[in-house]
C-alpha cells in the first residue's frame, strides 16, 4: 500500500448508496477495498435486501421466503472482505424503490449525510443505472446530496463503458478512473461472498489466478458535482 496516499486519505469518509446486496461488490468493490485499505471510513447503504432476486443458488437452495436473510448474511460477509465500516439498510422491498414516496426517501438519505458527514458520496446515475431500483435510489441520493451541499458526488458506471463517455453525453474530464489492481483479491472474495448470486458465474469459481483475470484494473466514475478532486481519485 502507498503509505503517503494512505496517510492523505486517513480519516476521510465515503458513503455508498445502492439498491441491492451485491451492487457494491460487483460494480465498485475494488474502489471500496482500495479506500478502506487507505484509512477511509466507508458506510454502505442498501435500500433493499434483494428478496426479489431471481437467483436462488445453483442448484437452488433458497426460496422467496429465505432469500432476504441469506442475502443480508452474504452482504455482511462481502463488507468484511471489502473493509466496509458500517452497513445500513433502508428496509425497502426489492423492486419497489421507484414507488417509495420520493420526498421521504430523499429525507432519509439526507439525514444520513448530515449524521455521517461524508467527504464523497457514490451512487447510481438516475438514468444510466440499468435497473429501476438503481435509477430510483440514485435519483434520491443525488437530490439528498444537493440539499446536503458538501463533499463530492460520483456515479458508478458498469465495466469500461466510460472509456467512451461521449456516447453518454460526457467528456473525459467528467470521468474519474480508479486503479484497483492491488485490491482485486478483495473484490473477488466479495464476489464469492454473494454466493447465491455468483454461483452461476463460472469464472468466479475458477482458480484465483484465472478468476482474477476477469476483473478489470480500473473502475470508472462519473463526476456528479462541481467541487472536484484529481483525475484518478475520489478525494482531493
TrEMBL record:
Classification via InterPro entries: GlcNAc_PI_deacetylase-related, LmbE-like_dom_sf
Biological classification of the source: Bacteria, Bacillati, Bacillota, Bacilli, Bacillales
This protein's name: PIG-L family deacetylase
SUPFAM superfamilies to which the protein is assigned, alphabetical: LmbE-like
One Pfam family matching this protein: PIG-L
Amino acid at each position: 500500500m502507498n503509505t503517503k496516499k494512505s496517510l492523505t486519505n486517513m480519516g476521510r469518509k465515503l458513503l455508498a448508496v445502492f439498491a441491492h446486496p451485491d451492487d457494491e461488490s460487483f460494480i465498485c468493490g475494488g474502489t471500496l477495498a482500495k479506500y478502506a485499505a487507505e484509512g477511509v471510513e466507508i458506510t454502505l447503504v442498501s435500500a433493499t435486501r434483494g428478496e426479489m432476486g431471481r437467483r436462488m443458488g445453483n442448484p437452488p437452495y433458497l426460496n422467496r421466503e429465505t432469500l432476504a436473510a441469506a442475502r443480508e448474511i452474504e452482504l455482511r460477509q462481502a463488507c468484511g472482505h471489502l473493509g466496509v465500516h458500517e452497513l445500513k439498510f433502508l428496509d425497502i422491498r426489492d423492486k419497489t424503490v421507484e414507488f417509495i414516496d420520493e420526498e421521504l426517501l430523499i429525507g432519509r438519505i439526507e439525514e444520513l449525510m448530515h449524521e455521517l458527514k461524508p467527504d464523497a458520496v457514490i451512487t447510481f446515475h438516475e438514468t444510466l443505472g440499468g435497473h429501476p431500483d438503481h435509477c430510483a435510489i440514485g435519483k434520491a441520493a443525488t437530490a439528498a446530496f444537493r440539499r446536503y451541499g458538501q463533499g463530492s458526488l460520483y456515479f458508478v458506471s458498469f465495466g469500461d463503458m466510460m472509456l467512451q463517455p461521449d456516447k453518454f453525453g460526457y467528456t473525459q474530464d467528467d470521468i474519474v478512473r480508479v486503479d484497483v489492481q492491488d485490491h482485486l483479491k478483495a473484490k473477488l472474495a466479495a464476489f464469492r461472498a454473494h454466493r447465491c448470486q455468483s454461483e452461476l458465474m463460472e469464472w468466479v469459481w475458477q482458480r484465483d489466478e484465472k478468476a482474477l483475470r476477469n476483473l478489470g484494473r480500473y473502475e470508472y466514475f462519473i463526476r456528479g458535482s462541481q467541487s472536484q478532486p484529481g483525475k484518478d481519485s475520489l478525494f482531493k
